[in-house]
Amino acid sequence: MADPLLSVRNLRIEFPTRRGTLVAVDDISFDIHQGEVLGVVGESGAGKSLTGTSIIGLLEPPGRIAGGEIRLEGERIDTLSYEKMRRIRGKKIGAIFQDPLTSLNPLYTVGRQLVETIQTHTDMTPTKARERAVELLHEVGIPAADRRIDSYPHQFSGGMRQRVVIALALCANPKLIIADEPTTALDVSIQAQILALIKKLCREHGTAVMLVTHDMGVIAETAHRVAVMYAGRIAELGPVRDVIKHPKHPYTVGLMGSIPSIGHDLERLAQIQGSMPRLTDIPPGCAYNPRCPKVFDRCFVDRPDPIDLGDHLAACWLYDRADAGLGSERTPEAMTA
Amino acid sequence: MTAQPIARPTAATRPDTDRPLVQVDGLARYFDVSKPFLNRLFEGDKRQILKAVDGVSFEIPRGQTFSLVGESGCGKSTIARTVVGLYPPSRGKVMFEGAEISALTTRRAMLPYRNRIQMIFQDPYASLNPRWRVRDIIAEPLTAHHNVTDTGAIDRRVGELLSLVNLSPKDGAKFPHEFSGGQRQRISIARALASQPDFLVCDEPTSALDVSVQAQILNLMKDLQTQFGLTYLFISHNLQVVYHVSDRVGVMYLGRLVEWSDKKTLFTHPRHPYTRMLLDTIPDLDMTGRERQPVAGEVPNPINPPSGCPFHPRCPHAEDRCRAELPTAKPSPEGSMVACHAVEEGRLPAEPRQVAPAVATA
Description:
The complex is a heterodimer. Chain A is globular. Chain A is built from 13 helices and twelve strands. Chain A is an alpha/beta fold. Chain A starts with 5 loop residues before the first strand and ends with a helix. The model of chain A is unreliable at 324-337 (pLDDT under 50). Chain B is α/β, with parallel strands linked by helices. Chain B folds into two domains: 60-92 and 105-248, 3-Layer(aba) Sandwich (Rossmann fold); 249-284 and 300-362, no CATH class. Chain B is built from twelve helices and twelve strands. In chain B, strands 6-7-8-3-9-10-12-11 form an eight-stranded mixed beta sheet, with helices on both faces. In chain B, helix 4 (134-146) crosses helix 5, helix 5 crosses helix 6 and helix 6 (181-193) packs parallel to helix 7. Chains A and B meet through helix 8, helix 9, helix 10 and helix 11 of A and helix 6, helix 7, helix 8 and helix 10 of B.
């Protein structure tokens, strides 16, 4: 396979506090290839948004990257100066956030914001930039784009605003878009429209997308591969279909079981006991050990690294080859049965 | 002041159980969203009335769950608030055990029903007083409704309630900020249960929660329903959750119920084009890699709803009649109630849906 567009290696994000250092993202590694949608899913506080913000270099102090590296097209971007990063942000990496209203300036027309962004990253003339802005608005599906371009953000509905934000992210034809919960604030019918738009952009422009969300349904529909995050670590990473149909990590198994599904008549949903540990008291060994139904001695001592299972990775001692002979109930077959 | 204990209907005095516990009949709730009088006078604007809910009727049998589902702004939360009496209805009535509670205007007249109807809100951060200890939050309905003054009895009851929602009785001494979102929602449920209600109105109780926590809360709500024979009015925009918890489901669009029936019929034989659209837009775990055609358009502004059937601008089956005439609900062959001209005229054939379980291994 070609070199990955984005490559994150052993990324570690820390927050120094008075009571000690909190590790919000702990040693995670993943790649995103051109034209690929990587879904990042997890509960609140799992570190998925922080991973996204660290890639675009918008990590807010006191949070800091304490280890590892982020490479875009082979070039390290986590060590760049603010000025240099500013040129990459927008040009090579676009961002879409949850709330379209906070991403747009209420005092300027969307046209002015689009033209400004286009001119920042390219040397187009104002007339050309405006033409490009209309083109972008048209592309993201805003009807009568040539007239709506002079409207203010408040004159658009939520779904239309999110389309404008996507148009803004596309201004300089970025290689990668970080989409952080892009549809969470929207109704389901609008969500379906926005997801279809994101998929279309990937297909037609070869843009790679890192889609951060808590909704497994959104991931299933949009992403090619998915990373399941838990307490700052990647629990499982693999092709969407495999992870959904044959989850390997006990956390993913629990997560999938806790999603109610239509046509599935259950008196009770499978539930994971307890809740995710706070960053201040992540247990030693595997972070999931207090809630895991399959826990055994080793989980309390050693921290599992992602183990290659052929089609996907799972950070769980159940799948450690050296440990496989110890008990039949711990084999992958027994887990997924 | 010496407070009279409020008489609670006992099993013997309760009316027959055949009658639905809650009946909502032609309920409407309008809001005046006009500009101030002087602005209207000088600018020549007319009064503007927002019809948040317009002519909604449904019944909830005792011990069952009726869900209202729809997109934001369709009026589902307004119904919830009107049913519990937070808003007086503009038209129509709400009946509880055959008594018209929406007509009760005084505090005193409403009092016997207050403790039997409770509400759980969406945001577990906003619905608990941050300055009160959990014990006091849960004890408030006890002291307010039952005039329990014995501190020991209150403490015992609060402990019971906390254990009921799988928290520790010791948690009563803590403040709400010490709990996670899911735990706060448990506290809200404990508070709602404190007055031993028959009917719980749940307005998006799990929308602010993560899925694994949502599963815990939904399981808890189901357990409590079995244990106490609770009746739920469940408001949600999440169709998967609605399928899981409901016995009957109503689909709302712009202040009206467009289709309602038992859950199986609604999900396997959706009739109304809007119901079909909603079902088509759910991100499905089974949808990986498949393409779908999303429905165009958005919910129109409820201040200026379209003429005729409010769904006609987005409906692929709209005809002249749909643009002119408001459809009334008629029973479909499958037994659901559908408000659609196309269905009534037979223009829209039945289109059974496969609702196969999505997750193979769990």
